[in-house]
Design a protein that fits this description.
This protein is an alpha+beta fold. It is 17% helix and 38% strand.
Length: 156
Protein backbone atom coordinates (compact mmCIF):
# COMPACT_ATOMS: atom_id res chain seq x y z
CA UNK A 1 0.00 0.00 0.00
CA UNK A 2 2.87 2.35 0.86
CA UNK A 3 4.44 1.71 -2.57
CA UNK A 4 1.13 2.32 -4.34
CA UNK A 5 0.80 5.64 -2.52
CA UNK A 6 4.38 6.56 -3.55
CA UNK A 7 3.64 5.72 -7.18
CA UNK A 8 0.47 7.81 -7.12
CA UNK A 9 2.31 10.73 -5.53
CA UNK A 10 5.11 10.44 -8.11
CA UNK A 11 2.64 10.36 -11.00
CA UNK A 12 0.82 13.43 -9.68
CA UNK A 13 4.07 15.34 -9.28
CA UNK A 14 4.92 14.71 -12.96
CA UNK A 15 1.58 16.23 -13.89
CA UNK A 16 2.03 19.32 -11.72
CA UNK A 17 5.55 20.12 -12.88
CA UNK A 18 4.90 19.51 -16.57
CA UNK A 19 2.47 22.40 -16.95
CA UNK A 20 3.72 25.56 -18.61
CA UNK A 21 2.99 28.94 -17.06
CA UNK A 22 0.11 30.66 -18.82
CA UNK A 23 2.00 33.86 -19.59
CA UNK A 24 4.75 35.23 -21.84
CA UNK A 25 7.56 37.68 -21.16
CA UNK A 26 7.47 40.94 -23.09
CA UNK A 27 9.98 43.78 -23.11
CA UNK A 28 9.99 47.09 -24.97
CA UNK A 29 11.73 50.44 -25.07
CA UNK A 30 9.31 53.37 -25.04
CA UNK A 31 9.90 56.70 -26.76
CA UNK A 32 7.59 59.70 -27.08
CA UNK A 33 6.53 61.37 -30.35
CA UNK A 34 9.79 63.37 -30.32
CA UNK A 35 11.74 60.09 -30.23
CA UNK A 36 12.96 60.75 -26.66
CA UNK A 37 13.11 57.90 -24.16
CA UNK A 38 10.38 57.77 -21.53
CA UNK A 39 12.70 57.31 -18.55
CA UNK A 40 11.50 56.17 -15.11
CA UNK A 41 7.90 56.89 -16.03
CA UNK A 42 4.63 55.00 -15.82
CA UNK A 43 3.11 54.24 -19.21
CA UNK A 44 -0.25 52.82 -20.21
CA UNK A 45 0.10 49.61 -22.23
CA UNK A 46 -2.60 47.65 -24.03
CA UNK A 47 -1.67 44.22 -25.43
CA UNK A 48 -3.81 42.32 -27.93
CA UNK A 49 -3.23 38.86 -29.38
CA UNK A 50 -4.55 38.90 -32.94
CA UNK A 51 -5.44 35.76 -34.88
CA UNK A 52 -4.49 35.26 -38.53
CA UNK A 53 -3.01 38.61 -39.54
CA UNK A 54 -2.01 42.10 -38.46
CA UNK A 55 -5.67 43.07 -38.72
CA UNK A 56 -7.10 39.80 -37.39
CA UNK A 57 -9.63 39.35 -34.61
CA UNK A 58 -8.34 39.97 -31.09
CA UNK A 59 -8.60 36.68 -29.20
CA UNK A 60 -7.15 38.20 -26.02
CA UNK A 61 -6.72 41.78 -24.77
CA UNK A 62 -5.22 43.06 -21.51
CA UNK A 63 -3.77 46.28 -20.09
CA UNK A 64 -0.76 47.09 -17.89
CA UNK A 65 0.67 50.15 -16.13
CA UNK A 66 4.40 49.40 -16.07
CA UNK A 67 7.15 51.85 -15.15
CA UNK A 68 10.09 52.22 -17.51
CA UNK A 69 13.65 52.17 -16.22
CA UNK A 70 16.42 54.73 -16.83
CA UNK A 71 16.91 53.28 -20.32
CA UNK A 72 13.23 53.62 -21.23
CA UNK A 73 12.73 49.85 -21.04
CA UNK A 74 9.73 48.07 -19.56
CA UNK A 75 9.11 44.42 -18.83
CA UNK A 76 5.72 42.73 -18.36
CA UNK A 77 4.17 39.28 -18.38
CA UNK A 78 1.45 38.92 -20.99
CA UNK A 79 -1.29 36.88 -19.38
CA UNK A 80 -0.81 38.62 -16.04
CA UNK A 81 -2.43 42.01 -16.78
CA UNK A 82 -5.91 43.42 -16.36
CA UNK A 83 -8.06 41.38 -18.74
CA UNK A 84 -10.24 43.32 -21.18
CA UNK A 85 -11.44 40.35 -23.25
CA UNK A 86 -10.67 36.69 -23.85
CA UNK A 87 -8.80 34.17 -21.73
CA UNK A 88 -5.07 33.68 -22.22
CA UNK A 89 -5.20 30.00 -21.23
CA UNK A 90 -7.87 29.35 -23.89
CA UNK A 91 -5.94 30.67 -26.90
CA UNK A 92 -5.71 27.83 -29.43
CA UNK A 93 -2.06 28.38 -30.39
CA UNK A 94 -2.05 25.55 -32.92
CA UNK A 95 -4.88 27.21 -34.88
CA UNK A 96 -2.93 29.38 -37.33
CA UNK A 97 -0.65 32.37 -36.97
CA UNK A 98 -0.85 34.92 -34.17
CA UNK A 99 0.26 38.53 -33.92
CA UNK A 100 0.89 40.75 -30.94
CA UNK A 101 -0.36 44.31 -31.03
CA UNK A 102 0.87 46.77 -28.44
CA UNK A 103 -0.58 50.21 -27.86
CA UNK A 104 1.15 52.72 -25.59
CA UNK A 105 0.06 55.88 -23.79
CA UNK A 106 3.35 57.56 -22.81
CA UNK A 107 1.48 59.61 -20.18
CA UNK A 108 0.33 56.53 -18.23
CA UNK A 109 -3.35 56.56 -19.18
CA UNK A 110 -5.44 54.81 -21.79
CA UNK A 111 -5.17 57.38 -24.60
CA UNK A 112 -3.03 55.03 -26.70
CA UNK A 113 -1.09 56.89 -29.37
CA UNK A 114 1.74 54.51 -30.28
CA UNK A 115 0.83 51.20 -31.92
CA UNK A 116 3.05 48.33 -33.07
CA UNK A 117 2.16 44.91 -34.48
CA UNK A 118 4.49 41.96 -34.96
CA UNK A 119 4.10 38.27 -35.59
CA UNK A 120 4.63 35.85 -32.73
CA UNK A 121 7.33 33.43 -33.84
CA UNK A 122 8.58 30.12 -32.47
CA UNK A 123 11.38 29.83 -29.98
CA UNK A 124 13.88 26.94 -30.16
CA UNK A 125 12.38 25.11 -27.15
CA UNK A 126 8.92 25.05 -28.71
CA UNK A 127 10.33 23.81 -32.01
CA UNK A 128 12.04 20.98 -30.13
CA UNK A 129 8.74 19.96 -28.54
CA UNK A 130 7.54 18.82 -31.98
CA UNK A 131 10.17 16.05 -31.78
CA UNK A 132 9.09 15.09 -28.28
CA UNK A 133 5.44 14.90 -29.37
CA UNK A 134 6.33 12.35 -32.03
CA UNK A 135 8.79 10.33 -29.94
CA UNK A 136 6.25 7.67 -29.00
CA UNK A 137 7.64 7.24 -25.49
CA UNK A 138 4.62 6.72 -23.30
CA UNK A 139 4.45 4.95 -19.96
CA UNK A 140 2.73 1.62 -20.55
CA UNK A 141 2.75 0.46 -16.94
CA UNK A 142 4.52 0.74 -13.61
CA UNK A 143 5.75 -2.38 -11.83
CA UNK A 144 6.24 -2.54 -8.05
CA UNK A 145 9.52 -4.46 -7.60
CA UNK A 146 8.61 -5.27 -3.95
CA UNK A 147 11.95 -3.89 -2.79
CA UNK A 148 11.00 -0.22 -2.47
CA UNK A 149 11.66 0.52 -6.14
CA UNK A 150 9.43 0.71 -9.18
CA UNK A 151 10.03 0.05 -12.86
CA UNK A 152 8.47 2.18 -15.58
CA UNK A 153 7.83 0.34 -18.87
CA UNK A 154 7.75 2.68 -21.87
CA UNK A 155 6.42 2.34 -25.39
CA UNK A 156 9.14 2.93 -28.00
Amino acid sequence: MKNLFSILLLALSFNFYSQSPQKMSYQAVVRNSSNQLIQNGMVGLKVSILHGSTSGNAVYVETHLPTTNENGALSIEIGNGTIISGAFNQIDWKNGEFWIQTEVDPLGGNNYSITAVSQLLSVPYSLNSEYAKNSGNEILNVVDNSDGTVTFNFEN
